[in-house]
Specification:
Layout lengths: L14 H36 L4 H13 L58 H10 L4 E7 L2 E6 L22 E2 L12 E5 L7 H5 L4 H6 L2 E6 L2 E14 L12 H14 L14 E7 L6 E9 L6
Parallel strand pairs: 4-7
Antiparallel strand pairs: 1-2, 1-5, 3-4, 5-6, 6-8, 7-8
Length: 309
C-alpha cells in the first residue's frame, strides 16, 4: 500500500505584507478623491473669475470709475477733440483715429464710403401708422421689449426734448428715445443707441442688469422698428463715463469699429462668450447712473445672426 503524500501547510503571508495589500485600494481611492477635489476647485475658480463677478466687485468697479482710478477714455484728455459740436455721451471722442500706447494718435483711417450713401425710401409698417395716430405723435419709431417689459420708443429732432417730456409731449421725467442720428433702416449704422432718462420707467429695468441672476434670466432684447422686427443678443454690461464713445453711431471704418467692439466686450462685468466682430451691428441702451451723473449704465447687444458662431 502506497503511503499518502504528506500535507504541507502553506506558508503564512507576513503581517506587514498583508496590511500593505489591504491598504492599497484605500490609497488609490484617496489619490482619486484628491484629484477630483482639485479638478472641481479649479473649475469653480475658473467659472467664478471668468463668467461671474459678484455684486461687491461690480460696486467696487463703479466706485473706481467714479474716483477716476479706471480710465475708460481712449487716449489722454489732452489728446481728445474737445471742440466737437456734439453733446452727450462720447461727444469728446476723436473718431479720426485710435491712440498708440505712448499716447500719440495713429494715422487717420480711410473713410468708409458706404456710410455716406443715400438711404432708400421705405414705408413704415401699418401698426406704427396706427400707433402714431392713436397717440398723436409722429415721433413713435419702435417698440422695445427688455426683460419682459414692452415700451414705445420715440425719436426726436435732438437728444434733449425727451429727457424732460413724455410720449404725449407733456413735461415729465422723460421718455425712452432713440438717438436722433440713428438710421432706422439699419444696414448703415454700426450702433443703434437708445437713451433712457434717469426718471424713465425703464431705468430700474436697465439698472437691474447689475444683478448677475437678472443678467442670466434676460439675455436677449427685441426691438421692432418702423420697418421690421429685430432680435439682439446681449454681450456686455458695464459702467462708463460720458467721454467713452459707447454712444457713437458710426466710426470712420470697420476696423476702428472692430477695435471698439473689443473694448466694449472687455469692459463687461460678465463674460457671455459671444464673439462680436466688425461686421456686427449692435444695439446700445444707456442711462445715467443718477440724474445729472457723468457715469452711464451701458447695455449692449449684437443683432441676432441667422447663423451663429
Amino acid at each position: 500500500m502506497n503511503n499518502p503524500k504528506k500535507f504541507k501547510p502553506r506558508k503564512k503571508t507576513p503581517a506587514s505584507r498583508q496590511k500593505s495589500s489591504e491598504k492599497m485600494p484605500w490609497v488609490t481611492v484617496g489619490v482619486l478623491a484628491i484629484l477630483c477635489a482639485a479638478s472641481l476647485t479649479t473649475g469653480i475658480v475658473y467659472w467664478y473669475t471668468t463668467y461671474f463677478r459678484p455684486v461687491e466687485i461690480v460696486t467696487q468697479a463703479h466706485l473706481e470709475v467714479a474716483a477716476g482710478d479706471i480710465n475708460l477714455a481712449e487716449g489722454p484728455d489732452s489728446e481728445r477733440d474737445t471742440q466737437s459740436e456734439e453733446t452727450g455721451p462720447g461727444a469728446d471722442y476723436n473718431a479720426s483715429g485710435m491712440y498708440n500706447a505712448d499716447g500719440t494718435q495713429t494715422e487717420p483711417p480711410v473713410q468708409n464710403e458706404e456710410i455716406s450713401q443715400p438711404r432708400p425710401a421705405a414705408e413704415p409698417l401699418p401698426k406704427f401708422v396706427t400707433l402714431r395716430e392713436e397717440y398723436g405723435n409722429d415721433d413713435i419709431v419702435g417698440i422695445l421689449t427688455l426683460a419682459g417689459q414692452e415700451i414705445l420708443i420715440v425719436q426726436g429732432d435732438d437728444n434733449e426734448f425727451y429727457l424732460t417730456h413724455n410720449l404725449s409731449g407733456e413735461y415729465s421725467d422723460g421718455w425712452i428715445f432713440l438717438d436722433y442720428e440713428a438710421d432706422l433702416l439699419l444696414g448703415y449704422d454700426h450702433n443703434m443707441v437708445i437713451h433712457v432718462p434717469a426718471g424713465c420707467e425703464m431705468f430700474s429695468v436697465l439698472r437691474s442688469y447689475i444683478e448677475y441672476d437678472f443678467f442670466l434670466e434676460f439675455p436677449t432684447i427685441s426691438f421692432s422698428t418702423l420697418y421690421g422686427p429685430f432680435d439682439w443678443e446681449i454681450f456686455s454690461f458695464y459702467v462708463a463715463p460720458a467721454a467713452f464713445p459707447f454712444a457713437v453711431a458710426n466710426h470712420p471704418n470697420d476696423y476702428i469699429w472692430g477695435d471698439m467692439l473689443e473694448q466694449f466686450t472687455l469692459l463687461s462685468f460678465y463674460n457671455t462668450m459671444l464673439d462680436v466682430t466688425m461686421y456686427d451691428q449692435i444695439l446700445t441702451i444707456t442711462a445715467p447712473t443718477a440724474p445729472g451723473s457723468d457715469l452711464f449704465y451701458v447695455l449692449q447687444a449684437r443683432m441676432l445672426r441667422l447663423i451663429t458662431s
